[in-house]
Amino acid sequence: MSSTLRFQIVGEAFKKKPIEVPNREERPSEFFAKYVFTRQKMQKYLPAEVYKKMCDVIDGSAVLDMATADAVAAGMKKWAMELGVTHCTHWFQPLTEGTAEKHDGFVEHDGKGGMVEEFTGKQLVQQEPDASSFPSGGIRSTFEARGYSAWDPASPVFVIGDTLMIPTIFISYTGEALDYKAPLKKALKAVDKAATAVAQYFYPDVTKVISNLGWEQEYFLVDEGLYAARPDLLMTGRTLLGHDSAKNQQMDDHYLGSIPMRVAAFMKDLEIQALELGIPCKTRHNEVAPNQFELAPIYEETNLAVDHNMLIMSLMKRTARKHGFRCLLHEKPFAGINGSGKHCNWSLATNTGVLLHGPGKTPLDNLRFVTFIVESLMAVYRHNGLLKASIISATNVHRLGASEAPPAIVSSFLGKTLGELLEQLETTASPILSEEGLNLDAESHSPFEKVGERLSLSLDIPQIPELMQDDTDRNRTSPFAFTGNRFEFRAVGSQQNCAAAMIVLNTAMAEALTDFKTRVDALIAQGTEPMKAILHIVREDIKTCKPIRFDGNGYSEAWKQEAARRGLDVETSAPIILDQYLAPDTVEMFARMKVMRRNELEARNEIKLETYTKKIQIEARIFGDLCMNHIIPTSTRYQSQLIDNVHKMKEIYPAETADRLNRTNLRLIEQMSEHNAFIIENVEQLIEARRVANRIQDYREKAIAYHDTVAPLIEKIRYHVDHLELIVDDELWPLPKYREMLFIR
Ligand code: ADP
Ligand code: MG
Predict the structure, then answer these.
(1) Which end of the chain has fewer CB atoms at under 10 Å, N or C?
(2) Rounded to the nearest whole angstrom, what is the distance from the C-alpha of residue 386 to the centroid of ligand 2?
(3) What are 377-392's pLDDT values in tens digits?
(4) Which H or E run includes 217?
(5) Nearest ligand, CA 298
(6) Which atom of ligand 1 is found nearest the CA of 212?
């Protein structure tokens, strides 16, 4: 690109006006879920008995039969056709991170040479997308190409444009998961079962526990013209070169600042569409970095929340283009400023309305609260390495460990009140050992409430204030922080499917609660009163999971050493972190909780390694091209201009004067030669490193080679490119600069 073209593009970007988003007559409450086949619509479009059956299917208490499916499909078709729908698709989440869809028209031959519009129960329930080109990690070899998608009735169908979208799982013919949704649903079932059993100690009427997820989606917006002029952004989603802008986020003037008009129009448009699709958008604001923003809905049941997050990411990308932007979901689009994450707020709640991670009013509630907090910590403690593996990627590594995001060690922050409460519980003598004050009469074995109350009081479990938010001071360095009535897992990357983290977290919680219950029941079987037994095991676990608790500064060098001493996973190399998917503890946990089998984990591990390698391979290629075809020629051209100037100085000045005046230019010429030489030589090395790595057959070894030899070279060369940017005439610089991309309004 010539420099004039660059200025033109920048100029255009600055001149753009917000596009007008028409004002809606209706209030959000009126158009909310307009394009979703909600229970209300089911009631309207389905016969009463079919509706009733579907409610049971959705709640998991009945299995879908073909007759019901046919009846549901008929009602759905009627509703969809009123909205002008002509096609339907199964919508699934393959292991590529995005979503996939294959559209089929409603049309069928009518047998008389014409067409009828058809949509059957079979089409609703099952499809066979040609699965051969989705990553399967060897589970389904390409020649078989057999996989199928099956409707997930727990996530309602919705309409986008002329298409009826049906959320589905995607599995192989032999039943292995080829997606995120299938294992997520199993993990949610496991945690429901385990948590219900434990919740029943406290509240016998509980019959179901729901996992909640509230994600916070961070993103960047860049003007479309500037984006198109950056091959690295276009191909990899991040800038592989570019010197810091003189002003970036150091003034702290962007976070929660007033939203630029063009962006506000985009947000409004996005929110209307999201609300129409039943996504309960609530919060929007500027984030810390320039051009960085966040959108957060109200939390929902985890399976639905994951679908909604996948949907919002694609809506964001599409809507951004309508407004002349590109939406960057990459975890680190720009070096030197904050990257983007997707904080996952997670909690469990009963079907009777108790938030299990929230403190309550009675001592019984508080013992339940402590139980669920401590078992969450047990889950995170036992699988801290696996949790890290669930969020590691070639892109998220740029964020983890930099001084802006959670560090590459998973630990948990509890805050002062809760931390002290656990200390107190831990140090009070065990009720099993010291019977004093626990002289419970025989009849108090039940009801639980009475026992719990008495026991808790006698043990001095302090009253826990309901609002702990203020106290759980915002420790931004903690990857897994308690925030009043939930945990916030902050290491999840902005473009990731949060299901990966939710599968691990919920399964680990299911395991922790199952083990908890086994031990409590063993004590009860020996004659220990239930609440005493619970407290005893809670105490034991407070001690066991202590190493995971850390309220200090997660970025400090001291913490890295301390964490290693505590036995936490401190590995930083992504391919090696991924080994955790096959660690004996992991395999055992997933098998016991009936979430994934070993071959499914092997497949996931292989896909993650392969994706890691490919991402860095693409970066290395495009980076090499940029260096050789954009940077070196530009730098050489400017250097020639300087050399020319040096010669001309000699023509017009006496030799001695010319030498004196030429000194600075000569120094620049020399610096540029050195940078150029470094770049050229190391790009050659980069190509060679890739060649060597590409010859490796083993997925893991190949990814390690890319991590150890290819990725570091990119960073090393970049340093020299970014220094050339400071020297070369701005007129000549071929790529939009950080200051141009980051401050478009
Ligand atoms: P922050 O101050 O951390 O940026 P936000 O308001 O942006 O908070 O987002 C908080 C998210 O946490 C929202 O999606 C909110 O609905 C969700 N949330 C609140 N309470 C719970 C809970 N008990 N369980 C799960 N998610 C919750
Ligand atoms: Mg937020």
Answers:
(1) C
(2) 25
(3) 999 999 999 999 999 9
(4) strand 209-223
(5) 1
(6) 25
